[in-house]
Design a protein that fits this description.
single chain, 107 residues, two-stranded parallel ribbon
Length: 107
C-alpha cells in the first residue's frame, strides 16, 4: 500500500501573470484585496512597496524566488499624473484593516 501524501508543488500565480500589469490591473487586484486574509498571489496590495520595490502581478518582489518581470503599461506625463491622483486617493482613504502588519501585508 502506498502511504505517500500528495503535495501541491506548483506555485499559483496571480490573475495578471503574463498579462498587462498596468494601473487598471493593479486597481482590480487592489479592489479584490482583503487585508484581513493572509497574503497570497491572489490576495495582496499591488501598491505596497518593500525595500523600495513594487511587486509583480503575483505579489512577488524583485530578488524573491518566482519573481517575474511584469508586462508594464505605457508611461506618459498624463498617465503618471492620473496614477498620482489615484495614489493620493488611496492614502486619504485606506482600506479598513490595511495597517502595517496586517495579515494581507508584506510588512
Amino acid at each position: 500500500m502506498n502511504n505517500r501524501v500528495p503535495t501541491k508543488l506548483n506555485f499559483e500565480y496571480g490573475d495578471y501573470d503574463d498579462k498587462l500589469w498596468d494601473q487598471d490591473a493593479k486597481k482590480d487586484v487592489y479592489n479584490k484585496w482583503d487585508p484581513s486574509k493572509p497574503r497570497s498571489a491572489r490576495n495582496f496590495n499591488p501598491f505596497e512597496t518593500f525595500k523600495g520595490n513594487s511587486p509583480d502581478a503575483s505579489g512577488i518582489y524583485p530578488g524573491e524566488s518566482r519573481y517575474k518581470d511584469p508586462q508594464r503599461g505605457d508611461a506618459s506625463f498624463a498617465i503618471m499624473m492620473a496614477e498620482k491622483a489615484d495614489a493620493e486617493e488611496r492614502v486619504a482613504n485606506p482600506k479598513a484593516g490595511s495597517e502595517a502588519g496586517c495579515a494581507g501585508c508584506k510588512s
